[in-house]
Amino acid sequence: MAELLSWLKERAKDDLLLWADQLSAANRFKISVREVEGVALENGLLPARYQRNRNMFCLDDQLKFYRSKVTVIGCGGLGGYIIEELARLGVGTIVAVDPDVFEEHNMNRQLLATPDFLGIKKVAAAARRVDRVNPAVELLPVGLAFSRDNGKQILEGSQVAVDALDSIAVRLELAEVCQDLGIPLVHGAIAGWYGYLMTQFPGERTLQKFFSHNSQEGGLEKQLGNPSFTPAVVASLEVAEACKILLNRGTLARRRCLSIDLYDMEFVEIEC
After folding, report:
1. In terms of CB atoms within 10 Å, which end of the chain has fewer, N or C?
2. 89-118 tens-digit pLDDT
3. Which DSSP state fits 50?
């Protein structure tokens, strides 16, 4: 690795490593661009794609992202945007969980849904998208329905779980598995013009309390539908929460729920 590091430093522009040089290094030294990225970040070089991050995140922060593992449960309306933003942020390992394939009705709002991907597993589409957006990120596709039975295996080693589900029953199972494993959970939900956001740490039962009187299997989304913009807004808020958890900074939406009304443009906190 000493030869690789010397090669990278010779080509770096100040402390920035251009993508062309990252790719050349991978080809020259017969390693992945992901490995090149790790060596660069560990030795004070910032891949140039992240240079607009640096006024918010220092090099050590970027290295934390690279070493992080985040699991996204659901690859539809919310999940597609969440995966995209985590990959562009530089989160090193993303586990994408979803049993479904893309259908035409997904195409009005789901970032990963394109004519080319109709009939394709959502997790396979997510893997292909991440490989194009940021090849230094590893996307681990899990084409299964999340449950209490497989949840611990799916979430093993993750620092954060991000809820992009459309089933209240399954998200409650997700909350219980996160509790058992000691993993923070970022919850988001969408329906029509509206959305919800909350973050739950082990020992808290905010999500369970919030849904204690609501047993609707599919929630309001099946009644109100969703346009293109609501998933993008709520997903971005979820990624912001995940980012703060990974860096251990900022104020999180804990023990409260943020109610989002894009029709009247109102954001209301609900104590839980």
Report:
1. N
2. 999 999 999 999 999 999 999 999 999 999
3. G
Contacts of 237 (CB under 8 A, 6+ apart): 188, 195, 197, 258, 260
Number of H helices, E strands in the chain: 11, 10
- Assign domain 68-271 to its CATH superfamily: NAD(P)-binding Rossmann-like Domain (3.40.50.720)
For residue 266, the surrounding DSSP H or E stretch is strand 266-271
The CA distance from 63 to 65, in Å, is 5
Each domain of the chain, given as residue ranges in start order, spans 2-56, 68-271
Which residues on neighbouring strands pair with residue 141, listed in sequence order? 96
pLDDT in tens, 193-248: 999 999 999 999 999 998 887 655 555 666 777 899 999 999 999 999 999 999 99
Closest-CA residue to 79 (of 270, 205, 235, 200) = 235
Q: Give buried/exposed letters for 62-95 (b at 16+ CB in 10 A, else e).
A: bbbbbebbbbbbbbbbbbbbbbbbbbbbbbbbbb
Strands 194-200 and 138-142: unpaired
CA 138 vs CA 14, 28, 43, 180, 218: distances in Å: 27, 21, 21, 26, 31
Q: For 265, which DSSP code?
A: T
Closest listed residue to residue 74, CA positions, set 161, 197, 192: 161
